[in-house]
């Protein structure tokens, strides 16, 4: 009799163990499907993925100058960006690279910023057009266009008149950039013909909008837009491939000496960006410099 009771107890115990195991397996399956277990937290001990633009990029040129990453060595300015940095060749690639790596840091034109990444406060100031205009956010640079002395493309000249007009500067402002003051209404001649505009991938988005707006007031014109980089934009304008060059920086003395004339069409901020999963919300200018020169290797080096 005692033996039968003992066997019965063992049976119940085995059945309970099986039920518990089944419940455990169900819970594990739920976790595997993303059910109840939270994702791993962002860890500042991880290495920083440093993302920069290519040589020739006006955004890179302005970025390294504004953050002191460009230093004078034996009388020459030298870009001290770490060799560990990943190089991207356009604004769009920069955005997708940082959006796809939770430990990445990069930089883009403020007007190109979208919600796929997070813009950091720099020295306590948010990266907004209002703060650029007020001078609170100091990481800013001019957007320039350039033409070659002696070149006479009627469509290009009329398009520039539109860009610098009240209507053109309204397009600039509507797209998140700082417009020029003291503009006048557009008074164009609606010429027939074609002009080629090319250069900086940072200027390109607002230039595309300006071209669309210009075609509404002058359907006779064809404006071709080629997106490259600031240096290519200036070189191609010098050699006549472009009627109008775009640069997201000041024109260099060497470019001016080759006969280029520059005009500022807008002011733009440079947003320092991180992945949306990053817990970092703010850095100082010195911290940004330490990252891009390779002094800071992990996020803990700058946030803890």
From TrEMBL:
It comes from the Bacteria. It is a lipid-anchor. PROSITE patterns: PROKAR_LIPOPROTEIN. Pfam families: PBP_like_2. The complex is composed of two ATP-binding proteins (PstB), two transmembrane proteins (PstC and PstA) and a solute-binding protein (PstS). Belongs to the PstS family. This is Substrate-binding domain-containing protein.
